[in-house]
Specification:
The structure is a single chain. 36% of the residues are buried. The strands form two sheets. The chain has a seven-stranded mixed sheet with strand order 2-1-5-4-3-8-9. It has a two-stranded antiparallel ribbon with strand order 6-7. It has one domain: Glutaredoxin. It is 29% helix and 30% strand. It is of the alpha+beta class. It contains six helices and nine strands; from the N terminus they run ββαβααβαβαββββα.
Length: 157
């Protein structure tokens, strides 16, 4: 599993921001920025839709005021699903990362097999990335939602 001090692996992902979808390398996405990245098992799932993403939407201005350049939400879903979810959640300030093939999730060692729920998914976590390097990492235990919340992230910033 990726650790504090490690560089984010270089892979291609799809990003969705302000309704626009782009393919981008993680090297480009995280270069020269302070980023709050949080990940969750799936778009449109109960905890993810009711608590995890909404918390970051509500606290986006507070997070940006701490010197953060980008808030990103990652899920092992395709770009169409992530775009639709962003629209239904009014997540205009959040960059959605569609890791459809789980390439980034697997490269970081933060994947899990959810079986019949949806196969390979991301574990729930949050991290701070500075110029492509992980400076803080909070990985949830299975079926919990505590250390990766927006409130917990604000305490770290």
């Amino acid at each position: 599993m990726i650790q504090v001090g490690d560089k984010i692996p270089a892979v291609s992902v799809s990003t969705i921001f302000a309704g626009e979808t782009s393919a981008v390398s993680t090297d480009q996405l995280f270069a020269d920025k302070k980023v709050v990245l949080f990940a969750l098992p799936g778009a449109f799932t109960p905890t993810c839709s009711a608590s995890h993403l909404p918390g970051y939407i509500v606290h986006a201005d507070d997070i940006f005021s701490k010197g953060v350049d980008l808030i990103a939400c990652l899920s092992v879903n395709d770009a169409f699903v992530m775009k639709a979810w962003a629209e239904t959640q009014n997540a205009e300030q959040i960059t959605m990362i569609a890791d459809g093939g789980a390439d980034l999730t697997k490269a970081m060692g933060l994947d899990m097999d959810s079986g019949s729920f949806g196969g390979i998914r991301s574990r729930r976590y949050s991290m701070i990335i500075e110029d492509g390097v992980v400076t803080a990492l909070n990985v949830e235990e299975p079926k919990t939602f505590e250390v990766s919340s927006a409130e917990a992230m604000l305490e770290l910033l």
